[in-house]
Amino acid sequence: MNSFLKTDNSSSDLMKGLISQFDVNSYEERTDELSLEVDPIKNSNRPLPMDKEINLDPNKTILSKTDSKGIIEYANDYFIEISGYEEFELMGQPHNIVRHPDMPKTIFKLMWESLKKGENIHAFVKNLSKDGRYYWVLTNFEFKYDEEGNLVSYYAKRKAAPRNAIFEIEKLYYTLRNIEARQGMNTAVNYLHGMLEDKKMTFNEYNYNLLNVNENALKNYFDNSKPEVQINSPEEKKKGLFGRMFS
Ligand SMILES: Cc1cc2nc3c(=O)[nH]c(=O)nc-3n(C[C@H](O)[C@H](O)[C@H](O)COP(=O)(O)O)c2cc1C
Predict the structure, then answer these.
(1) pLDDT tens, residue by residue, 55-84
(2) What is the pTM of this model?
(3) Residue 244: left if φ>0, alpha if ψ -120 to 50, beta else—which one?
(4) Whose CA is nearest to atom 31 of ligand 1?
(5) Residue 16 belongs to a domain with what CATH number?
(6) I need a surface site. Which of 34, 42, 83, 166 has the fewest CB within 10 A?
(7) How far is 135 from 52, CA to CA, in rounded Å?
(8) pLDDT at 1 > cutoff 50
(9) Nearest C-alpha to atom 6 of ligand 1 is from which residue?
(10) How far is CA 32 from the centre of its chain?
(11) Does the C-beta of 177 come closer than 6 Å to ligand 1?
């Protein structure tokens, strides 16, 4: 793991400064584009991030259901276990209760833009547990509509994020956070769009590329139903999607 990218206890003073500045701004500059009007726990009560990772079970799914504003209505047992909170602490809370300060705002802006359109987004997210440890997930969203076609619920399924992809995404997120802290979120959003245009990829495609899988393979990974898809070589066929993603 590249210690240069760490921003927790082991981070440099510069990064600590940048992150704390980012955090303050993220609360004060809340815009309508983002989900929530209230912070779930007062700033001083937010868990203090520490440089300790929770290794997720790749066979398990972290699931939550929210209303259209991202207020948590349900979380499965694995969500409860990994987040470190009790049900009564999570239900009715905004989903940013697990937001980690290392996450760029830019990624959540992109996430909400997709969600409001009812479009799935596969994003790598570093989450913060109640005890200050972190865990990396890959997201998948499903949508529920009422009879008039209004979006009423989001279902977020999260799986363990493969290690090699985390290494790459940490570098991108580090860059985005620095741009956000120094130049503001819009500049960081423009940078991300520029990077994707340069690569001729959508954000999802960029993430599939990091995972070395296509959209169908990822869908099956989340469905847990047909793991043996998009096999590229006989050797990889033996490993299957799961083996390839986590090797
Ligand atoms: C269904 C759903 C699941 C979400 N899951 C996460 C998550 O696991 N971690 C996270 O930090 N934000 C998650 N979010 C986004 C949060 O609502 C929030 O936008 C984000 O934490 C950034 O915080 P902020 O909006 O206060 O800036 C989720 C939103 C929805 C609708």
Answers:
(1) 999 999 999 999 999 999 999 999 999 999
(2) 0.79
(3) alpha
(4) 70
(5) 3.30.450.20
(6) 42
(7) 9
(8) no
(9) 95
(10) 20
(11) no
